[in-house]
Amino acid sequence: MRARLGETSAPTGPAEAEALRRFRSFLLLALVSDEPAAPALEGLRTGERRTRRLLEAWLDAAALVAGPDDASLRAALAPFVERFLLALRETGHARRASGAPVPGQRRVVSAAIDRVCDAFLAIDVETGAIADANPAAGSLLGTTRDRLLGCDAMEYVPAEARELWWTQLDAVSEGAEPRRFRGSLQDAGGRALAVDATVTRFATRSRTLALVLARP
């Protein structure tokens, strides 16, 4: 599983380990029941993207053990993986909706961030969506702050640099200390931009954000 996830991935935390345990319980019940119950996800706090990688790695390991029957095993188990992830996605959407802030209410500190000359991005570590940005980020990326909001942050990262950025976001999602690294972004026209970046964790009841400051 480590080979499948990659050496640079963030360590699997208690939430992901619990998600794997619950998936295995769900699978065992599903295989012996005519109409399996929905996955038990109450109290589980993990995101769909990281859990998908973990379950796919588990499926690879199971297929390896199956040997010549690997294809039939994958075909049999894949629908259960997708059902579990769908339930996890729906649970996550409900959790975020229940604690979502009122749109348009930006606090005084946000107004102060708008004055910072370095590019500032607040990125949802699970979805990769840009939750907030300052005008300097819009200027650096060849667009406006408003157009950045809600966009996939990876649209502004060169394809070859995305794994590094996801690694940083994963580490922040696990509660790591602030991180510094040399990375790459790209503007709206596709021009690569080398940046020095710092990433800090900011967690709320509904989601975890990576607060990124990037300086060319």
Total domain count: 2
Report the principal-axis shape.
Answer: elongated
Tell me the strand percentage band: 15-25%
The helix count comes to 8
Q: Return the string of H and E elements.
A: HHHHHEEHHHEEE
CATH level-3 fold name of the largest domain: Beta-Lactamase
Which structural class fits the helix and strand makeup? alpha+beta
CATH superfamily of the largest domain, please?
Answer: PAS domain
Average pLDDT level? 80
N-end to C-end Cα span: 37 Å
How many strands?
5
Task: Name the helicity range.
Answer: 40-55%
Spatial arrangement of strands, main beta sheet: 2-1-5-4-3
- Spans of 5+ residues with little confidence (pLDDT < 50)? 97-106
For this structure, what is the CATH class of the largest domain?
A: Alpha Beta
**What composes the largest sheet?**
5 strands, antiparallel
Provide the CATH architecture of the largest domain. Answer: 2-Layer Sandwich
What would you report as the Rg, rounded to the nearest angstrom? 20 Å
Keywords:
single chain, 216 residues, alpha+beta, Beta-Lactamase, 2 domains, five-stranded antiparallel β-sheet, 5 strands, 46% helix
Task: Explain what you see.
By secondary structure, this protein is α+β, with helices and mostly antiparallel strands. It folds into two domains: 2-98, no CATH class; 108-215, PAS domain (Beta-Lactamase, 2-Layer Sandwich). It is built from eight helices and five strands. A five-stranded antiparallel β-sheet has the order 2-1-5-4-3. The chain is elongated. The two termini are 37 Å apart. The relative contact order is 0.12. The model is unreliable at 97-106 (pLDDT under 50).
